[in-house]
């Protein structure tokens, strides 16, 4: 890890670990206000509001249809039909396949967004090349382009390229985004000192090596957040998969949509689907959150 | 150390996912062994599962996949697929309300007459066949599946509370015309103040419009919604009854509508054959015997029913046409009617079948559904739909909603409907 | 776009940057190439094609019709529905974005202290993001149901309203309900972005503020806010782009699924209008004109954002 070791500082610099929401800040780095009871109370209210619709989905999903519909206001107490409804979800739609598809699409786009965005962000933040400012301006402008508005031509294009109905129709257009490039440029700018890049050059490291050994570790936490959000965007995307994939080979959102395919919408079934589709992400990110915290702690201690 | 490991994991993950993605993209329908795959796309359950099983036994070289979507999405998807020339299923159901839209691009669909469809002409109800041929003599767009002949479902217990007869013949006699239907509604509301007469003004208006030979468009596909006296008559009658409080103001097919049925917030509902299943599911088993079925006011009418079409872009048009033929055959339609889906057949022979004619629904107080729906299906006249029929209907539906919400009186709503329809049709 | 290349406010002043000489290596171009390549194919091409379509009479099914020049755009300006949709879009955007970002700041501020079970709080705040938009719309249209909705039940229980509110029926109520949906979904997301930025604020700044005896709120205003301004700007731009393209929430809020946005289009956003003409009426030419106007609206609002956010100079 010689390359990534920071060079002797020429000026006092606050020890700044890369920023990230799941980062646990060691006490010695920065004084934090202790949270009083009021802060805990307020946070409890906020999280209760955040969790309530999911809880309510769970409640409806645990009833049989009639009992939910019977009351004048819906019940807030779970019933005993959750397993049965979840079983029906898997019977009535290709939910396993949809889960696999969603993980594949969301995982691939998350990883590629992180890699390609930080690569471009590195170039924009630290390298000088002709037309750089112009190209960066282009990125910012494309940030405002509502790409899904050209959905019909996009659909025709995807069909012509032979990607209709394949997961590549979702993955390829989303491999890298303007938001990611813009965000990672900012992260590289803020977190990687120029001296570090220069030191790597003096050491004889090529640009790719510098990228991999200096930039990637340096912006790891922001990159993780970007990956996380990209994953969730892809996971939750509704409009485009509905058009680009046939229902029998869809993502989780399409499978959910399938559950409402009849004239009569069975809400216990649909919301059981919602619970099933939210659970893997919830579990994955709870696990991942701990990973990130511990990873950053280790990095902070070493650095 | 944690860093290196994390990075290695990231790299491995990237490699793995992109590999899987690539292999997933590289696939396609493997058809080297001579089997072919046909996809059948429908909206809601058409009851094809057992039929597909049966077809597989006689055609071992055909693999059939089912694709079921929500009603509007199904048709919008087909539009997109037709527009871009790819992605459509081999056999695609089109509902009668959407059929006119696709009439303009009928050259994108296989003319089933080229695959022997004309041999089946005599089997079909005449008006259903005319819908399928788009009024031409040499083009068959699709094989008719089911029809949706109209009736009125009513709550016997609420009728009893209002002092109205509950026997289905007597109830049918209450409303030979829609005027009589609304007048009965007034009588009902005078006695039973906490219940509405019908579920939604939109559904009543739709039923009325479906009973006319020409509604919003004339035979030349010209918009006549603003000049056809029937449209104004139907709209005004519905709007007045709504303003008088006869509507339960429930958006059709919404959750509120489902709950409204469950809680019995209305005494009557317009009831095409396929609606009976919906009412039964929404009201639940415990409501068995409270509902019954009577004749629809104003003579027979049809609402709904579909056609199986074969888009030209498919790879196996011939085999797809054969499958569509099978799925709409007399034997198939009878099986579907007697099965859980219970869609009403569109073939004269099946409608005359004693088993179909004698069918009754226990849940609906043993109503003889075979007799009620089958006999009215045979006496129907075709109901012409313009190419842009839906675009004309939506503003009228919106205007009725304004009456339900108390935002417009019937006259103002009518003016609004005309203006909006004119705009929506340009 | 020189604004973007200026050193960001949190950037450290330092010696002249030792950067590589321009034009030496093709590698930097290779680094940015994937983005531009993909954007050209899947972003720019469809958009230009849309512009081409908007200049024609173009039925989605039948395809290209005759060249009509700017007629579709002229028709749009005469269309009262367009003005309604423009108003709805901006109204829902403002109603959802402003409180959302303020709430996110407050939540981030609360999270940026010593808390028991810190990770759990942060994970819980992000829960709305795990729930698919279909589910969000479904759950919220139930909560905001006219007849048996929880919101009406609560308001009536508190004695705030006499009769149940038909949330979809009126402009104010539908905008409020939809904005609430959007707010609920995105507040936690923005809070975590702010939190990330707040944790990068140098410690000395807080220390000197503490020495000066500044209150917690004053410290937040004078130290934290200026320090995270680039991030604020980032979220404002992203929320603007997302907020002006709102589709799923208003589309699914109306259970009819016909993109009318209510009987009087009281909550039809520009994207819903685009969907109505493009996918229901099959008038691709008109829908493409709506696309382009929407693009221009987004560009203008985003530019206004940038100007407003950049105007006060660094302290």
TrEMBL record, chain A:
Keywords: Cell membrane, Membrane, Transmembrane, Transmembrane helix, Transport
Region of interest called Disordered, as start-end residue ranges on this chain: 1-22
Compartment annotation: Cell membrane
Bilayer topology term: Multi-pass membrane protein
Domain ABC transmembrane type-1: 99-288
Main location group: membrane
Annotated InterPro entries: MetI-like, MetI-like_sf
Coiled-coil region(s): none
Record-annotated membrane-spanning stretches: 38-58, 103-125, 134-157, 163-183, 211-235, 267-289
Pfam families for this protein: BPD_transp_1 (PF00528)
Family classification: Belongs to the binding-protein-dependent transport system permease family.
Protein name: Carbohydrate ABC transporter permease
Organism encoding this protein: Streptomyces omiyaensis
Automatic annotation (TrEMBL), chain B:
Record keywords, A-Z: Signal
Top-level taxon: Bacteria
Signal peptide start-end: 1-23
Keyword DNA damage attached: no
Pfam families: SBP_bac_1
Name of the protein: Extracellular solute-binding protein
TrEMBL record, chain C:
Record flagged with keyword Ligase: no
Keyword Cytoplasm belongs to the record: no
InterPro entries: ABC_transporter_permease, MetI-like, MetI-like_sf
Keywords, alphabetical: Cell membrane, Membrane, Transmembrane, Transmembrane helix, Transport
Chain segments annotated as transmembrane: 27-48, 85-111, 123-144, 176-197, 231-248, 284-308
Top-level taxon in the UniProt lineage: Bacteria
Major site of localization recorded for this protein: membrane
Gene3D superfamilies: MetI-like
Residue ranges of every copy of the ABC transmembrane type-1 domain listed in the record: 86-305
Membrane topology category: Multi-pass membrane protein
Location(s) in or outside the cell: Cell membrane
Family designation: Belongs to the binding-protein-dependent transport system permease family.
PANTHER family assigned: ABC TRANSPORTER PERMEASE PROTEIN, INNER MEMBRANE ABC TRANSPORTER PERMEASE PROTEIN YCJO
Name used for this protein in its record: Carbohydrate ABC transporter permease
Organism: Streptomyces omiyaensis
Organism classification: Bacteria, Bacillati, Actinomycetota, Actinomycetes, Kitasatosporales
């Amino acid at each position: 890890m010689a390359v990534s070791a920071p060079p002797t500082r020429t000026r006092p610099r606050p020890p700044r670990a890369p920023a990230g929401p799941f980062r646990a800040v060691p006490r010695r780095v920065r004084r934090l206000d202790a949270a009083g009871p009021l802060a805990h109370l307020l946070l409890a209210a906020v999280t209760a509001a955040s969790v309530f619709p999911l809880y309510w989905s769970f409640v409806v999903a645990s009833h049989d249809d009639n009992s939910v519909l019977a009351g004048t206001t819906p019940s807030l107490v779970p019933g005993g039909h959750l397993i049965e409804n979840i079983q029906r979800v898997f019977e009535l739609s290709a939910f396993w396949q949809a889960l696999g598809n969603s993980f594949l699409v969301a995982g691939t786009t998350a990883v590629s967004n992180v890699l390609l965005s930080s690569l471009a962000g590195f170039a924009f933040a630290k390298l000088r090349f002709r037309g750089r400012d112009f190209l960066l301006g282009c990125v910012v402008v494309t940030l405002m382009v509502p790409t899904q508005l050209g959905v019909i031509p996009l659909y025709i294009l995807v069909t012509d390229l032979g990607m209709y109905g394949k997961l590549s129709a979702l993955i390829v257009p989303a491999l890298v985004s303007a938001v990611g490039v813009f965000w990672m440029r900012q992260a590289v700018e803020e977190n990687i000192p120029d001296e570090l890049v220069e030191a790597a050059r003096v050491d004889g490291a090529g640009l790719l090596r510098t990228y991999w050994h200096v930039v990637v570790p340096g912006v790891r936490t922001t990159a993780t957040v970007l990956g996380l959000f990209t994953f969730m965007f892809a996971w939750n995307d509704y409009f485009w998969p509905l058009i680009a994939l046939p229902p029998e080979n869809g993502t989780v959102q399409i499978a959910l949509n399938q559950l409402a395919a009849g004239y009569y919408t069975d809400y216990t079934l649909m919301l059981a689907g919602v619970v099933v589709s939210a659970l893997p992400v919830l579990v994955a990110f709870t696990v991942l959150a701990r990973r990130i915290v511990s990873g950053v702690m280790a990095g902070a201690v070493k650095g | 150390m944690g860093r290196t490991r994390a990075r290695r994991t990231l790299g491995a993950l990237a490699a793995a996912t992109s590999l899987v993605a690539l292999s997933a993209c590289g696939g396609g329908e493997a058809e080297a062994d001579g089997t072919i795959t046909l996809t059948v796309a429908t909206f809601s359950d058409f009851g094809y599962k057992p039929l597909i099983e049966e077809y597989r036994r006689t055609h071992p070289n055909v693999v059939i996949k089912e694709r079921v979507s929500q009603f509007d999405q199904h048709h919008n998807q087909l539009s997109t697929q037709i527009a871009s020339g790819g992605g459509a299923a081999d056999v695609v159901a089109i509902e009668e309300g959407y059929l006119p839209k696709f009439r303009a691009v009928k050259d994108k669909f296989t003319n089933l007459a080229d695959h022997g469809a004309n041999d089946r002409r005599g089997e079909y109800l005449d008006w259903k066949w005319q819908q399928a041929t788009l009024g031409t003599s040499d083009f068959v767009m699709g094989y008719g599946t089911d029809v949706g002949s109209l009736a009125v479902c009513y709550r016997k217990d609420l009728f009893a509370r209002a002092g109205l007869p509950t026997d289905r013949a007597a109830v049918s006699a209450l409303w030979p015309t829609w005027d009589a239907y609304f007048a009965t509604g007034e009588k009902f509301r005078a006695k039973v103040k906490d219940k509405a007469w019908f579920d939604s003004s939109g559904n009543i208006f739709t039923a009325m419009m479906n009973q006319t030979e020409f509604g919003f468009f004339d035979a030349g596909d010209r918009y006549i919604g603003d000049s056809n006296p029937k449209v104004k008559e139907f709209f005004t009658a519905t709007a007045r009854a709504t303003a008088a409080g006869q509507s339960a103001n429930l958006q059709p097919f919404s959750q509120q509508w489902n709950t409204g049925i469950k809680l019995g917030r209305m005494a009557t509902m317009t009831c095409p054959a396929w609606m009976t299943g919906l009412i039964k599911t929404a009201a639940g088993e415990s409501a068995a015997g409270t509902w019954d079925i009577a004749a629809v006011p104003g003579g027979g009418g049809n609402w709904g029913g579909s056609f199986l079409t074969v888009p030209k872009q498919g790879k196996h048009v011939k085999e797809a046409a054969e499958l569509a033929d099978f799925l709409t055959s007399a034997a198939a339609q009878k099986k579907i009617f007697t099965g859980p889906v219970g869609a009403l057949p569109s073939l004269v022979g099946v409608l005359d079948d004693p088993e179909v004619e004698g069918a009754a629904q226990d849940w609906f107080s043993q109503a003889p559904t075979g007799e009620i729906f089958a006999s009215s299906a045979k006496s129907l006249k075709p109901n012409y739909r313009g190419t842009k029929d839906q675009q004309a209907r939506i503003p009228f539906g919106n205007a009725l909603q304004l009456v339900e919400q108390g935002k417009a009186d019937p006259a103002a709503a009518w003016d609004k409907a005309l203006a909006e329809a004119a705009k929506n049709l340009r | 776009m020189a604004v973007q290349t200026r050193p960001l406010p949190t950037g450290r002043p330092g010696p002249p940057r030792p950067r590589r000489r321009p034009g030496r290596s093709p590698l930097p171009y290779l680094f940015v190439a994937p983005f531009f390549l993909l954007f050209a194919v899947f972003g720019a091409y469809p958009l230009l094609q849309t512009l081409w379509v908007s200049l024609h009479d173009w039925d989605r099914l039948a395809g290209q019709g005759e060249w009509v020049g700017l007629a579709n755009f002229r028709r749009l300006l005469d269309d009262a529905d367009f003005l309604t949709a423009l108003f709805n879009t901006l109204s829902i955007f403002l109603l959802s974005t402003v409180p959302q970002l303020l709430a996110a700041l407050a939540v981030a501020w609360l999270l940026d202290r010593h808390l028991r079970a810190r990770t759990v709080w942060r994970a819980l705040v992000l829960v709305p993001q795990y729930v698919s938009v279909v589910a969000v719309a479904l759950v919220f249209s139930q909560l905001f149901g006219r007849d048996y909705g929880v919101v009406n039940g609560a308001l009536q229980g508190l004695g705030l309203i006499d009769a149940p509110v038909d949330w979809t029926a009126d402009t104010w109520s539908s905008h409020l309900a939809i904005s609430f949906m959007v707010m609920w979904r995105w507040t936690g997301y923005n809070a975590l972005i702010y939190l990330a930025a707040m944790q990068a604020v140098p410690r000395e700044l807080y220390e000197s503020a503490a020495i000066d005896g500044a209150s917690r709120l004053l410290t937040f205003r004078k130290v934290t806010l200026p320090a995270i301004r680039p991030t604020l700007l980032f979220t404002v731009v992203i929320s603007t782009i997302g907020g002006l393209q709102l589709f799923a929430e208003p589309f699914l809020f109306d259970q009819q699924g016909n993109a009318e946005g209510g009987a009087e289009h009281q909550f039809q956003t520009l994207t819903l209008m685009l969907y109505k003409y493009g996918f229901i009426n099959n008038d691709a030419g008109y829908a493409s004109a709506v696309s382009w106007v929407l693009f221009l609206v987004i560009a203008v609002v985003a530019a206004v954002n940038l100007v407003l956010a950049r105007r006060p100079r660094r302290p």
